[in-house]
Amino acid sequence: MINRSRKAKYAFYVLGILLLTLGISFTIQSELGTSPFDALLVGLSLNVGLTVGSWEIIIAFILICCNSLLIKQRPELLGLLTALITGIGIDMWLFLLRNLITPELWFEKLVCFVIGLFVMGFGTAIYLHTNFAPIPIDRLTLIIQELTRTTIFLSRTFIYLVFLIMAIIFNGPIGVGTLLTVCLGGLILNYFMPFTERILTNASTSFDYGTDKNHSI
User: 109 and 29 in contact (C-beta within 8 Å)?
Assistant: First the structure.
């Protein structure tokens, strides 16, 4: 039977992805430009076909293969589970927000984008700390950080720049929001990582209290 700490881990995993995809949807709805990766997904959806979420899953599979080559290990196919949930989450939030959030003034669009950027960073930090099937692009961030011995901020920014070029090629929604994401996305994630670690540690301790010490996450 799954113990309480493991249940808490899975709960935070799902919560993190839901927050991440909500943040992504907010940035798309802002129409100020999305993150380079999401801009690529939207560009592929508009110019090639399929939904944004579908391209999330397809690109994730490609990245899983790339990550496998970098770390010289078997492909982490479990990452496809996260990509699948993320793809479904993006399409779900876009469907729900399409008629609810339609900012028209530049200030409204900016507020919508900023909310999305912070929610996205917070959600990413939460599910990454569960250490369960990270999205391939986030796994790539951690791999590059480890290989180059730099910070998450620098590795994330490098990846954003690569996808920015690809998004431009596919005519994705590039704008001031994209620039803000490249400059601030890694910084925001780096800020939330220790914060969410404390939250998950405290939650795990609370769930573990009074349970069998032989049980572990």
Answer: no
Instruction: Judge whether 1 and 196 are in contact, CB under 8 Å.
Output: no
Whole-model pTM? 0.76
For the chain, what are the domain ranges?
4-203
d(CA 70, CA 88): 28
- Angle at which helix 176-208 crosses helix 152-169, to 10 degrees, equals 140
Q: Which residues contact 95 (CB under 8 A, 6 or more apart)?
A: none
Amino acid identity at 84: L
Mean pLDDT by groups of 10 residues along the chain of 217 residues: 67 88 90 86 89 90 88 80 88 87 84 91 84 77 83 79 88 86 79 78 56 35
The whole-angstrom separation of Cα 114 and Cα 24 is: 11
Contact 88, 141 (CB under 8 A): no
Read off the tokens for 78: 């479990």
